[in-house]
Amino acid sequence: MKTQVGIIGGGPSGLLLSQLLHLQGIETVVLEQRSRDYVLGRIRAGVLEKGFVDLMRKAGIADRLDSEGEVHNGFDIASDGDLFNVDMKGLTGGDTVVVYGQTEVTRDLYDARDKLGGIVIHEAQDVTPHDITSDSPYLTYRQGDEVTRVDCDYIIGCDGFHGVSRKSIPSDVLRVFERVYPFGWLGVLSRTTPVSEELIYARSERGFALCSLRSRVLSRYYVQVPLEDRVEDWPDERFWEELKQRLPRAVAEKLETGPSIEKSIAPLRSFVAEPMRYGNLFLAGDAAHIVPPTGAKGLNSAASDIHYLYEALLKHYTEGDDRGLEGYSDKALARVWKAQRFSWWMTNLLHKFPETGEFGQRMQQTDIDYLKSSRAAQISLAENYVGLPF
Ligand code: APR
Ligand code: PHB
Hints:
Bound molecules: adenosine-5-diphosphoribose, P-hydroxybenzoic acid
Radius of gyration: 21 Å
């Protein structure tokens, strides 16, 4: 098989890039290790920056997002019983975010790929990049006993944190920066009316909690839990009780509880791999960087990589101009690091860190008091939350 751009990974990054390139007449093949049902069964975050929404529009797949996504003008920060609103729209001169689940984004992308007849090969095992520093790199994959070779101009690693592409970069070239946090998030999805129309990020003495939503009838809640905890340790009743204790009383009293329809625990990590290009292999999304979910930057950081990569590949194929490809790693990383800083800061602001003691708690409380009273501090928070320009 032969194509122009070989993409490893059929998550949001790989699918979005393949859709954008296809619309410009550039051929792609996407190799995905899992089945489509498996990919669509993953529940992930759901706050989209304007840049991401614009990219979905450019890819011609924003109809459902525009009709079903909920525009959010702000969010609340709660701390030990007190609560204030961050008016993102007012603070940024009109910018907002859209709440629309990543699972829905992925479904829309698959539908769009099907409609155009895009090639997405599922259950592709042992995907391996070859000759990545040559002008004729290729991929191989196996289905059953049959091994297939895909020749391409470029290989794009969109295969997430555990993928094969980053591992193909020699260890004396790749630099890794990492912070693993000493806790995780327990997330619950429930068919209940969300407690608030806007998100509530809550800091409390018992640890962090987040009230989010997927629609008017579907709520998504999280509580910070120790890394050792298992989902089995958290029957629904215990979850709801703990969530209530971490929210201001007026919010807790309004909370509608019900059976969970999904429950999972995710560890929190900050991670960046540099460079994001090696020869003719380019990394994008979770393959190159991970953020803790506190700032809702995971999917949005992936989208900014795809934006730069798409523009660079387009310039290469339409004008023979390779400057975008040459500058991709530096350009993408500059924005990636800013999203890292913001996610790290928000994580530090709102979570309970046992090791920082009472001094650390006072610092958090003071930081939140300052935010509440300073428009300048709120503007900084708001401009990062809605997303820095590409
Ligand atoms: N071969 C082929 N496919 C692979 C391989 C491999 N060796 N390893 C992983 N994959 C697939 C995974 O099954 C997954 O479907 O690559 C895909 C990567 O998708 P994601 O992990 O969703 O990463 P990405 O597309 O970059 O999406 C950005 O933003 O909010 C965050 O983590 C969140 O998924 C989200 C990400
Ligand atoms: C979510 O709705 O899943 C969500 C929202 C905001 C975050 C993280 C997760 O910061």
